[in-house]
Amino acid sequence: MKDKNCAYCTGGELLDKFGIYICDLSVSTLILFKEQSKRGRCIVAYKDHVSEIVDLDENELNAFMADVKRAAEAIHKVFGPDKLNYGMYGDTGGHLHVHLCPKYRGGDEWGGTFTMNPGKIFLTDDEYGWMIEKIKAAL
Questions:
Q1: Residues 6 or more apart from 119 whose CB is under 8 A from it?
Q2: Largest pairwise CA distance in the chain
Q3: Dihedral sign from CA coordinates of 38, 132, 86, 93
Q4: Residues 49-63: what's their mean pLDDT?
Q5: Buried b vs exposed e over 43-67: b needs ≥16 C-beta within 10 Å?
Q6: Alpha-carbon distance 14 to 63, whole Å?
Q7: Contact at 8 Å (CB) between 97 and 44?
Q8: CA separation, residue 64 to residues 2, 24, 84, 98, 115 (Å)
């Protein structure tokens, strides 16, 4: 099931406002978050427009969490964060997704909850391209 008003379902201009498609995983899509104050921040969005993990059967949930783990391993390989925070929100969007937010000891917001969209650091197309290449290679 897809929702034509959902950035995770439709991609395109809606997704372009905050993210860049990296690739499809087994049951989800991996997206680079454009705001990069947490170097390597990504989103893993479930393939269908479901709101909660309770909407998935056991096999779907296991596959989704395996995608999250795979993306997390790639972020660790490429960016070497001291900790990776996992955020599952979606109060307004209603599409199951997980923010993978790398944190670096002594860095921005270390020891606290990450800001959803601080609007601090945006990169060039070449820098985004480099990050996407490295993440894909590490998957």
A1: 35
A2: 42
A3: positive
A4: 96
A5: bbbbbbbbeeeeebeeebbebbbeb
A6: 26
A7: yes
A8: 17, 12, 17, 10, 24
| Confidence band of 14 (pLDDT split at 50, 70, 90) | very high
Give the model's pLDDT for residue 113. Answer: 79
Instruction: Dump pLDDT digits (tens) for 82-128.
Output: 999 999 987 777 899 999 999 999 987 888 778 777 889 999 999 99
Spatial contact of 31 and 15, defined as CB atoms under 8 Å apart: yes
What are the backbone dihedrals phi and psi of residue 81, each rounded to the nearest 5 degrees, phi first? -65, 155
Per-domain residue ranges for the chain?
A: 7-112
What is the CATH code for 7-112? 3.30.428.10
Closest by CA to 78, choosing from 3, 22, 124, 18, is 22
pTM greater than the 0.85 cutoff: yes
